[in-house]
Amino acid sequence: MKSFRKANPAMSDATTKCSAGEENDRIKYATSSMKGFRDEMEDALTAVLDLDGYSSTSFFGVYDGHGGADVALYCSRQFHIELTKEPDYGNNLRTALEHVYFRIDKKLKRSDEWKREPADPPVNRTLKNLLRAALCEERYVPPLQEGTTACVALIRGNQIIVGNIGDSRCVLSRNGQANDLSTDHKPDLQQERERIVRAGGQVTRDENPQRDITGRLVSVDLGIHRIGGKLAISRAIGDFQFKKNKALSPAEQIVTCSPDIRTVDITDDTEFLIIASDGIW
Q1: pTM given for the model
Q2: What is the dihedral of CA 121, 126, 128, 134, to 10 degrees?
Q3: Residue 51 has pLDDT above 70, yes or no
Q4: Which residue from 33, 34, 46 is spatially nearest to 72, judged by alpha carbons?
Q5: What is the mean pLDDT of the chain?
Q6: Needs which cofactor (predicted)?
Q7: Is a pLDDT exceeding 50 seen at residue 13?
Q8: Burial level of 9, CB count in 10 A (0-12/13-18/19+)?
Q9: Rg of the chain in Å (alpha carbons)
Q10: What is the pLDDT of residue 131?
Q11: Cross-strand pairs, 180
């Protein structure tokens, strides 16, 4: 499996752009990332031209982290690997893709195993677990305020299968026309708001106060819709502060990891595909 992954939380220059690309006899791709003027780089991406070596499956994913970079980086390292482990991977890629979103989220919730070094031998991990128990280490707390979007596209044969949670976006150019292959999951969408309210959540809207030079308030513009005044997306991996209702399934939580999945055929007028975080769109 030859892959390209990029994320650089330590990137200091806001205008430094990191780009790469590769091609085979079917696909040519290019990737690019730039921190911008935020304090940290929390986005990550993955590109794998040959995912399994025999089914001619290619994988591309964009993960836009928030509250930290760890969850996005983990997904960039592991999401596509977990996909190949799914029983349906060979004959039902759509079902396999859906299962991976829930599997990754469950791993983050269950223990800190996801934070361990991939090269750490299983026997060492077992010893570490025993030591933690012996030392009465504090109970594991999953990432409450950290999470990531996950917009991924798989190409197999003449089909493109896109899975998405959050507000990173996938767009296909067909005959010069832009075709959305994903939906931005925002709290103000009716379907999302209804689920949030049923689960006990609340959707509020920012206020952006404007003042004159004396400091007098002249207007209050309404801004971004957020869940509980915090989160501006309604589906994500992580964010377990919004997934605490034990009476509800993972798909019914205030913030869910349940993906929208769409499949389209590659035809003669298919030109190119773009996957990018919300900062680009």
Answers
A1: 0.85
A2: -170
A3: yes
A4: 46
A5: 89
A6: Mg(2+); Mn(2+)
A7: yes
A8: middle
A9: 20
A10: 56
A11: 171
> What pLDDT does residue 44 have?
95
Nearest-angstrom CA–CA distance, 65 and 134: 34
Contact partners, residue 181, CB within 8 Å, separation at least 6: 153, 160, 162, 170, 171, 172, 262, 264, 273
Question: In 120-266, at which residue ranges do the beta strands (DSSP E only) sit?
Answer: 147-148, 150-156, 159-165, 169-174, 177-180, 203-211, 217-227, 237-238, 260-265
First to last CA, the chain: 30
The answer to whether the CB of 3 falls within 8 A of the CB of 47 is yes
| Beta strands 150-156 and 159-165, pairing class | antiparallel
Where residue 36 falls among pLDDT bands split at 50, 70, 90? Answer: confident
Contact 145, 239 (CB under 8 A): yes
Please give the Cα distance from 114 to 73 (Å, whole number): 11
Query: 185: helix, coil or strand?
Result: coil
Q: Which domains, from first to last, does the chain contain?
A: 2-9+18-183+261-276 (3.60.40.10)
The 10 Å Cβ neighbour count of residue 269 is 10
Which amino acid is present at 245?
A: N
Strands 177-180 and 203-211: unpaired
